[in-house]
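Sanity check

After download, print the first record. It should look like this:
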Amino acid sequence: MNAKKVVTRFPPSPTGFLHVGSARTALFNYLFTAQQGGVMHLRIEDTDRQRSTKEYEDNIVEGLKWLNIPYADMVRQSERGALYADYTKKLLETGAVYWSDEEGDKGKVIRFKNPGGEVSFTDLIRGEITFDVSELGDFAIARDEEHPLYHLAVVIDDHDQGVTHVIRGEDGISNTPRQILIQRAIGATEPTYAHIPLILAPDKSKLSKRYGAVSITEYREQGYLPEAVVNFLALLGWSPQSGGEDREIFSTLELIERFDLSQVHKSGAVFNVEKLKWMNREYLRTLETTIYEQEVCERLPQRDSAILKRILPILSERVYTFNDITQLDSEGELDYFFKKPRPTREQLKTPQYLEEVEMILTGLPIDQWTVENIKNALWDFATEKGRGEVLWPLRISLSGKDKSPDPFTLAALLGKEETLARINYARTLV
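Expected structure tokens:
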């Protein structure tokens, strides 16, 4: 039982869409907080009035909802001016801060009177960190009494909300000494810090849109499942100790149970979109059949739903995201399931055995028409005559495509009558 209830916060600025880096920060905060039975606040840091928009704020809220990352409440810094003014006036009264004339015609700002010396704190991921704060000089903390700059607003908010743990990206490390100085000036308790590694592109450069730094809602539009994205993000920079298990698929509940900030890596985490696709396919395979059917049919409303449901096993092998279904269809990769192919003589290459293939399959009872039985019926003959010479023209007869599922699977899905009809047509080309 914790002596003090854990309180965390996720504080995005609504100056851009919720991207993978911010989403992972929110996720790490949530996993830690949920494991400790604590509370996580959503704080919209919208003090930059010119760049902050309602559109970006809505996108942040929508992205967290899609990822199923809950929070206790939401506050906006733009609505907390009176609170900031109260603290700023007290700081002015104590002499901890002062009005300063800026160079040129920039007016005045309120600056923090830096006492100098060193500031140290223990980071749960990186250990002891020490800064010589003398190098910071007297830094600006507010434009006026009601409009604090970033560092002052963050410290007041953390103190007011009772934040016990600050879990953020490693780019926030340099902000920590200023914030600790302000904490001391207002009499706030210093929270525990944990700075998580940045997410990097495959070439170890800063993550860009080219490599996946896009809005979280774009992954939703691309047909990813939120559970897969959460699982993937959780393993970016953190490795669970799984007792020798070799696994990478974890439910959110399992992630909460296993999450440990001490196991978070210090070095940057590489974003691998192929790994995300693989993980998403693993989750797609576990979807309830009715849900999978619904998603497929909604994306291809122009196609026969009965046929779509029949070819779900094929799709599950070829599809990594739901959008792949639409792409396969637009590229004509599914056409042969819905209309008879018209292959050429050149495509068939070695059609001389099609007559024997047709005879063998004609003799296979319809109640035994399965992938395994079709393969068993043809295998000895194909081995004797040459598998390529027998099976290639059969595949082309059934699909008309150089790339398609194997002929046994195709025949089973098409049914006996349609399979024989397509073979018969191909024989007319000989």
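If your output differs, re-run the checksum step. Summary of this record's structure: The two ends are 80 Å apart (CA to CA).
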